[in-house]
Amino acid sequence: MSVPISHFWPVAIGFLSLSINYFVQGGTTLSAGPNWNQDKVKFDRTVGLWGMFLGGFGQLLTGIYLMVGLSWFPVYRNAPPLYMAAVAFTVYGIHWIVLGLRRYTGSDHGPEAWMAIPLLGLSVLGAISFNKADDIPAMILFIGLTLIYICEIPARFLNSKGWEKATGAFQLLTGIWLLYLTYGVTLDFANGMHWIV
Q1: Furthest-apart CA pair in the chain: how many Å?
Q2: What are all long-range contacts of 153-156, with beta carbons under 8 Å and residues at least 24 apart?
């Protein structure tokens, strides 16, 4: 069975999902709101749902889609760097399902200190991989992710509000970059434009 090569990678789904999640996570970390009903439990549950479904399932779906397209039905044979993207989308997606569920249930965030260490490693790996592939926009994304986890480690180990705010700031900045990547990829693939992505 011959499978045609596809030039339509599903990365915009993962970019936009994580962008929305980072706007919610980073924005609420920096501003503690809006929280109209002033109920912390309901507020945390709402933020947790965004983490699970946008950050989590949106990225996990993209990662699985890419990995299947690289392996079982090799329709992305023309883009080996998508392997790094598939690994990252899948792992970050699972991680956001856990983080969102933790926040939804009101569980302790301390153990996330240990989670942040290998995810920092994954972020650095992504920056290296996309730099080697001369994909500077994706490398910038992974530098943003690296900065998030550099802040997340002391935020969780020290239970530091200052480091938590820094994490939120880098989430929001990375969310803005992800929104740019969503526009660039979508307009390039769908409309033949030439954004730098």
Answers
A1: 58
A2: 153/113, 153/116, 153/117, 153/120, 156/109, 156/110, 156/111, 156/112, 156/113, 156/116
pLDDT digits (tens, 9 = 90+) for 64-107: 999 999 999 889 887 889 999 999 999 999 999 999 999 999 99
Q: Which two tokens stand for residue 122?
A: 């994954």
Alpha carbon distances (Å) from 88 to 43, 91, 153: 28, 5, 19
Residue 152 amino acid letter: E
Burial class (CB in 10 A: 0-12, 13-18, 19+), 21: buried
Which pairs from 65-70 meet CB under 8 Å and 24+ separation?
Answer: 65/10, 65/13, 66/9, 66/10, 66/11, 69/6, 69/9, 69/10
* Cβ–Cβ < 8 Å for 93, 63: yes
Tokens representing 176?
């803005």
74/1 Cα distance (integer angstroms): 11
Q: Which residue has the tokens 């939120």?
A: 168
Q: N- to C-terminal Cα distance for the chain?
A: 32
Q: Which two tokens stand for residue 32?
A: 């503690």
Q: Could you tell me which of 144, 133, 128 has the C-alpha nearest to residue 178? A: 144
Whole-structure pTM over 0.85, yes or no?
yes
